[in-house]
Design goal:
single chain; mainly alpha; 4 helices
Length: about 100
């Protein structure tokens, strides 16, 4: 047996102990970072409500031209955006395995 094959076998058989620390904020930034995320979430939800209102007005004014189907599709995309904004922390936590 060559030394290379022994080394490869040893590496393949040795379990790697990869550290997996819990996420923690930088000391001193516990308040500001969570406050910034809260403001961003609030701003995203305000923008989503504004988007729903804009699409609703467009649907109202374009209903006599039979262009409403496009606005209904836009409402679906807004709903997807609201779901992503509302569940962003849960989605990232799930993906990161937290």
């Amino acid at each position: 047996m060559s030394a290379l094959s022994v080394l490869v076998d040893a590496i393949a058989m040795t379990p790697l102990d990869i550290p997996d620390p819990e996420p923690a904020p930088i000391p001193g930034f516990e308040g500001p970072s969570s406050q910034l995320l809260a403001w961003m979430k609030w701003g995203g939800l305000v923008a989503a409500v504004g988007g729903v209102l804009v699409v609703a007005f467009r649907l109202f004014f374009n209903s006599h031209r039979e262009e409403g189907s496009r606005q209904i599709g836009q409402l679906g995309w807004i709903a997807v955006g609201v779901a992503l904004i509302g569940g962003a922390a849960s989605i990232v936590g799930f993906i990161a395995g937290a």
